[in-house]
Amino acid sequence: MFGTIPFVKAAGRGLGKIFKGREAKKALEKEVDDLGLDKTGVEIDVNDDGKVTVSGEAVSQEMKEKIILAVGNVEGVGGVEDKAQTRTQGRASRFHTVASGDSLSAISKTYYGTWKLYPEIFEANKPMLSDPDKIYPGQVLRVPDIKTA
């Protein structure tokens, strides 16, 4: 999945007015570290317009996607350019931007045809999500492809 993933610049976790140069880079790297994500081999850069570039080689497809979401769901980030490779292949997820009134069960119904698989979406977004009921408009979530019987 290469390209730019759009994020709502006015939504997300507020880290302060840091979106200039080295301070923005440090703050986003700290955010990834604080979430316990493995950014080994990954480079995070930020331009003055709030566009983030993730490059290098992530340990897995899942970790790359989680890093993209961790830095993208920060107030002031308007998009993340995905230029990263992965060491191990994995299933790519789709990204969903939460709309007003969305819930994980409604998102599950949209993508999987049933509300019952909302725990799959919740698990795919840990540690960024700590509660399945705490999502907000403008937040971008991973929706993993699943195999149904």
What can you see in these coordinates?
There is one protein chain. The chain is α+β, with helices and mostly antiparallel strands. The chain has two domains: 3-86, 2-Layer Sandwich (Histidine-containing Protein, Chain: A), CATH 3.30.1340; 93-144, Membrane-bound Lytic Murein Transglycosylase D, Chain A, CATH 3.10.350.10. It is built from four helices and six strands. The protein has helices spanning 21-34, 61-72, 104-112, 118-124; strands at 3-6, 42-46, 51-58, 79-86, 93-97, 140-144. It has a four-stranded mixed sheet. It has a two-stranded antiparallel ribbon with strand order 5-6. A hairpin with a 4-residue loop joins strand 2 and strand 3. The longest helix has 14 residues, at 21-34. It is globular and about 45 Å long.
Topology:
Blueprint: E1 3-6, H1 21-34, E2 42-46, E3 51-58, H2 61-72, E4 79-86, E5 93-97, H3 104-112, H4 118-124, E6 140-144
Parallel strand pairs: 3-4
Antiparallel strand pairs: 1-4, 2-3, 5-6
Helix pairs in contact: 3-4
Based on the model shown, name its key terms.
149 residues; alpha+beta; Histidine-containing Protein, Chain: A; Membrane-bound Lytic Murein Transglycosylase D, Chain A; two-stranded antiparallel sheet; 4 helices; 6 strands; globular
Q: Quote the distance from N terminus to C terminus.
A: 26 Å
Task: Please give the number of β-strands.
Answer: 6
Strand composition percent: 15-25%
Number of domains: 2
Note the overall shape. globular
The average pLDDT is: 89
Q: According to CATH, what is the class of the largest domain?
A: Alpha Beta
Order of helices and strands: EHEEHEEHHE
Task: Quickly give the structural class.
Answer: alpha+beta
Low-confidence stretches: none
Task: State Rg.
Answer: 15 Å
CATH topology category name of the largest domain: Histidine-containing Protein, Chain: A
Q: In what order do the strands lie side by side in the largest sheet?
A: 1-4-3-2
